[in-house]
């Protein structure tokens, strides 16, 4: 188990910088998820930690050791790839043992570890098969098995579940979480799927365009996003954003009226999560709208609304609600559930409510 | 230009699908007759192509006076003596020539496969400065005729005292002398997923171990293709032995065959053909066994 | 510095055998061959510098011009003939022929054997005065010429030998044809394009890169061809130098007469000719070769 410390880490391809001075501290024993839209530099960052990609600038330390110049094989870490990257010409057993043989570990110890990993991942009866004889889920297990037999101080995952179908993905998510609880090893996990991030992480780092937008627990990110990017990226369905105008400590939100804010004058935006959009008049701000679409999900319903001004909002309602397309409804927002973002998209402090 | 307008126009045509179906039907009807014509053409062509080879085989079993002016393939009597006599017709027996050829060929194949796969691995999988320039230069050597480097190489090997030995034929093969094979392997290596190298790196492999434990085992078809071509070309090679080997006891099979004609251009045609047939037997056997690999290799590399 | 070495160590280690070969067996020889071409050298005594004399001699050397013209004739006739034949057969084989594997293998066999001395020997006998070819011609009532001793016909034998080995360009054409989507032909057929129109409007343009590739390759191969001409012409380019391929002339100058200086000059001329032909092919290719993923 080891902490990982990144300071001012940069990466350029040719002249183009794709990772811009990242500072990040991954605590020992933590499950840290790097999440962000595709192309934002997550894999690049992870591969720099792994030692598969050279660091253009800055330092990376694993534990106490600065590893900038340490080859991947000597960083004492394991990595699970999106494509699984199982060696096609080796049996599952050989795949698992390969890294250990390279370490010249004694045979009985290798066998013990392989057997143990096979037990944990329930791949015992697959050991003599070749990768091409495995299903996607089985390949995934073997890939994870190959990572855990090393008993490394750090696990790296690069979108390991994205090649699986939806059902398997949910199942593997649970298994990975269990595995983490069992091993307690530091894990860094890359995904573009915020649901994966929210469900598995002890902490999440949100990346965008080669910068870290925010680092925090799932709770912090969901409830206290630092900026509009994080607010809209985390949470599904997405947070509603209403453009507004601030003037002298009050913001005018079309359809809804005004509310007190603590931002400089100018164009701002106000965000509200769909589950906090209330249908009815029971709120601090109320607007009139029309139902344009109802999606029934079983446990809840998504109600798509169009306000008088023509802008769309999404509300999440209890599965007992009876809304139909075309219904005229009132939409209510509570002031304490609003997020206010200034002209630069940064979250503004809440106005101390009085009214 | 014309083709793009054709392509562009088709999807907007309202009944494309129906017409296409009708065309397929019509095609099926016409298909049978066309297929027959095709086969007749192909069979005749194959016969013409293969006839000389069969004629050579037949002639190798005929008495000398039946070879010329005679279209028939079946000899009136099978002259197996052509083979036994031809085998020992020269001052040195063909046993020696075949052993020589085998020696040169086996070592050349080994050298080629090892050294070319080394270079190909560097070009396809490793990063180093100047890679693209070296690669371009390597591709340019494909163009250089052997005749251009032959004289200086000859002088070099003469000074090294290597003339009249097999070294000038074998040593260059260990120096990745044939860019064709490098190119073929580069093409193949590039298809293998990069993730494998990276997973192996994390599993504690250095580049040598990755080459040996991952890339090579996954490239058996490419290695085999290279080995087969290398075998065939070395076995057939004429100019190299012609220049470097002067003592008949060192001759390879092609050189021996050519002395066969030179030494008596008159009579022993049956024996000459018998030895010619034997000289290509290894190639034909290889071709029959490995033709899939050979044909795929040509299509893959697009060369030769 | 340390970082630089580490980054390059593995790559250059693997490249080392090739690098040694490249300098010792390609670059070195090409350069020294240029030097030797300005000398008089018999491979025994030290080379003596004679400036441009070899080249001056070459201009007046009748056999040099003869060798050039023989080689050019061979290239200019055999390469297009071979390619046309290869393309025709590939198109017949392309779609839905049963036993295609068989034909492919049969047609490729001569390419594999073509370079062998056995085939050269065979060819010589086929075209003997009373050889198989003339016997066959006799059957249809033609009195065949004396192929091997009549300088007007001798080159034909080698051209036939070259075309006989159409197998490898055929395989490459086949791969190229496979890559053309069938829908294009259906679309064209719907637009009532006839067979010829389809060939010229679809097959030919889409195949242009492959044709170009085959052309360059076969040209280089044809310039380099040696053993067939050597054996069939009795090693000297006979009869009457009508089979004096450039490579045969070069070989004889170097290894029969040990005029290494002059032969080096010939080698350089050959290198330049091939370079020029390749360059011209590449240069003209932009007018007739359009690659699929190219934006215009
Ligand atoms: N080898 C490379 N050469 C050039 N650009 C690259 C390379 N690898 C990644 N990039 C660029 O770096 C950016 C980040 O890529 P990546 O880390 O793979 O994104 P993510 O994993 O977040 O989807 C992308 O814009 C990508 O185009
Ligand atoms: Mg990625």
From TrEMBL, chain A:
<dbReference type="InterPro" id="IPR015855">
    <property type="entry name" value="ABC_transpr_MalK-like"/>
</dbReference>
<dbReference type="InterPro" id="IPR003593">
    <property type="entry name" value="AAA+_ATPase"/>
</dbReference>
<dbReference type="Pfam" id="PF00005">
    <property type="entry name" value="ABC_tran"/>
</dbReference>
<protein>
    <submittedName>
        <fullName>ABC transporter ATP-binding protein</fullName>
    </submittedName>
</protein>
<feature type="domain" description="ABC transporter">
    <location>
        <begin position="4"/>
        <end position="234"/>
    </location>
</feature>
<dbReference type="GO" id="GO:0055052">
    <property type="term" value="C:ATP-binding cassette (ABC) transporter complex, substrate-binding subunit-containing"/>
</dbReference>
<dbReference type="GO" id="GO:0005524">
    <property type="term" value="F:ATP binding"/>
</dbReference>
<keyword id="KW-0547">Nucleotide-binding</keyword>
<dbReference type="InterPro" id="IPR013611">
    <property type="entry name" value="Transp-assoc_OB_typ2"/>
</dbReference>
<keyword id="KW-0067">ATP-binding</keyword>
<dbReference type="GO" id="GO:0015423">
    <property type="term" value="F:ABC-type maltose transporter activity"/>
</dbReference>
<comment type="similarity">
    <text>Belongs to the ABC transporter superfamily.</text>
</comment>
<dbReference type="InterPro" id="IPR047641">
    <property type="entry name" value="ABC_transpr_MalK/UgpC-like"/>
</dbReference>
<dbReference type="Pfam" id="PF08402">
    <property type="entry name" value="TOBE_2"/>
</dbReference>
<dbReference type="InterPro" id="IPR008995">
    <property type="entry name" value="Mo/tungstate-bd_C_term_dom"/>
</dbReference>
<dbReference type="GO" id="GO:0016887">
    <property type="term" value="F:ATP hydrolysis activity"/>
</dbReference>
<keyword id="KW-0813">Transport</keyword>
<dbReference type="InterPro" id="IPR003439">
    <property type="entry name" value="ABC_transporter-like_ATP-bd"/>
</dbReference>
<dbReference type="GO" id="GO:1990060">
    <property type="term" value="C:maltose transport complex"/>
</dbReference>
<dbReference type="InterPro" id="IPR027417">
    <property type="entry name" value="P-loop_NTPase"/>
</dbReference>
<dbReference type="InterPro" id="IPR017871">
    <property type="entry name" value="ABC_transporter-like_CS"/>
</dbReference>
<dbReference type="InterPro" id="IPR012340">
    <property type="entry name" value="NA-bd_OB-fold"/>
</dbReference>
From TrEMBL, chain C:
<dbReference type="GO" id="GO:0005886">
    <property type="term" value="C:plasma membrane"/>
</dbReference>
<keyword id="KW-0812">Transmembrane</keyword>
<keyword id="KW-0813">Transport</keyword>
<dbReference type="InterPro" id="IPR035906">
    <property type="entry name" value="MetI-like_sf"/>
</dbReference>
<dbReference type="InterPro" id="IPR000515">
    <property type="entry name" value="MetI-like"/>
</dbReference>
<dbReference type="Pfam" id="PF00528">
    <property type="entry name" value="BPD_transp_1"/>
</dbReference>
<keyword id="KW-1133">Transmembrane helix</keyword>
<feature type="transmembrane region" description="Helical">
    <location>
        <begin position="105"/>
        <end position="123"/>
    </location>
</feature>
<dbReference type="InterPro" id="IPR051393">
    <property type="entry name" value="ABC_transporter_permease"/>
</dbReference>
<keyword id="KW-1003">Cell membrane</keyword>
<feature type="transmembrane region" description="Helical">
    <location>
        <begin position="12"/>
        <end position="38"/>
    </location>
</feature>
<comment type="similarity">
    <text>Belongs to the binding-protein-dependent transport system permease family.</text>
</comment>
<feature type="transmembrane region" description="Helical">
    <location>
        <begin position="198"/>
        <end position="220"/>
    </location>
</feature>
<feature type="transmembrane region" description="Helical">
    <location>
        <begin position="153"/>
        <end position="177"/>
    </location>
</feature>
<feature type="transmembrane region" description="Helical">
    <location>
        <begin position="226"/>
        <end position="251"/>
    </location>
</feature>
<protein>
    <submittedName>
        <fullName>ABC transporter permease</fullName>
    </submittedName>
</protein>
<keyword id="KW-0472">Membrane</keyword>
<feature type="domain" description="ABC transmembrane type-1">
    <location>
        <begin position="68"/>
        <end position="281"/>
    </location>
</feature>
<feature type="transmembrane region" description="Helical">
    <location>
        <begin position="263"/>
        <end position="283"/>
    </location>
</feature>
<feature type="transmembrane region" description="Helical">
    <location>
        <begin position="67"/>
        <end position="93"/>
    </location>
</feature>
<dbReference type="GO" id="GO:0055085">
    <property type="term" value="P:transmembrane transport"/>
</dbReference>
